[in-house]
Amino acid sequence: MTITIKKVTTKKELKKFIRFNYELYKNNPYSVPDLLDDMLNTFSPQKNAAFEFCEADYFLAYRGGEIVGRVAAIINHRANETWNKKEVRFGWIDFIDEEEVSAALLKTVEEWGKARGMEAMVGPLGFTDMDAEGMLVEGFDQLSTMSTIYNYSYYPEHMEQLGFQKEIDWVEYKLTVPDKLPEKFVRISELILQKYKLRIKKLKRGEIKKYNYGQRIFDLINEAYAPLYGYSKMTQGQINQYIKMYLPLIDLRMVSLVENEEGELVAVGISMPSLSEALQKAKGKMLPFGWYYLLKALFVKRPKILDLLLVGVKPEYQSKGVNALLFYDLVPVYQQMGFVYGESNPELELNKKVQSQWSAFESVQHKRRRAYKKVF
């Protein structure tokens, strides 16, 4: 039966777009569903500040009356201008294991991009780096995290069969929280503090607004991440959105800041308890009991795994060991809170500076994800 592609035009259809992922991965032990309300906000031009510089449409693939695939077509004009490219992104792509379906979805994105003057397509990518990105190509038997994509192993097979080439890979690490920090690590950290006249700052809730720490953190992330693949600097609207959305949920014990003697922020590390199992139990909904599972994981009975959400170091302090100070501060906190493992966020495979920070810990690279590209 012929595959029909239909653009999402109503909120009812948008909910179907989101829920297709839930249905495709229903009862999958490794997939972690997004919250429906979060996704509705992400796809809304009125709620997502990324639409200040992005345009997008969403498409569903039907066979008969049944949905068999989905994809978002996105142009991040800010990223294209920054990197001097004319690329359309495909994101939030899911499909059953039939090449006719994946081919129809990707062809739709290609035609959508060509009509807007684009010369290539790349993905999976979201609106910005703050969205999940990269198709899983290794680690299909590993539990996903709330900020990454999980997909079946046939996805990359389809991409290769359809002529897409590797653009770039990200790797992820599972880290064991040590019983004790190595003496050498402690000694080096203390020398770095003295040599560069740095200090570790632990935030208090009232200080975030009073001393503008939310703004300062995201300004640092913008500066630290600027050279990374496809990055587009967050606008003030995005920064305001993330401060409002995320900082109230963070346990400040799991945040580490490093300042120089002038009080300038030079490094930040933000982590939190893994919400993967809680989100699986919530099944994409806050009601009736989704909120309970999430709050329990955050504040009552924490899981044994933590997520390393953001690590950023001011460019002039990179390669000076400053990132070690974040874990010099945080590892004792993780020990006290009962964490056993940590999950890194995806790191570009060529970013050896970031990967070298795990050398002091027992770690294993357990996942790999890929962005694919096709030139028109």
From TrEMBL:
Taxonomy, superkingdom: Bacteria
InterPro entries registered for this protein in UniProt: Acyl_CoA_acyltransferase (IPR016181), BcerS-like (IPR039968)
Gene3D superfamilies referenced in this protein's UniProt entry, alphabetically: 3.40.630.30
PANTHER family hit by this protein: PROTEIN YGHO
Protein's recorded name: N-acetyltransferase
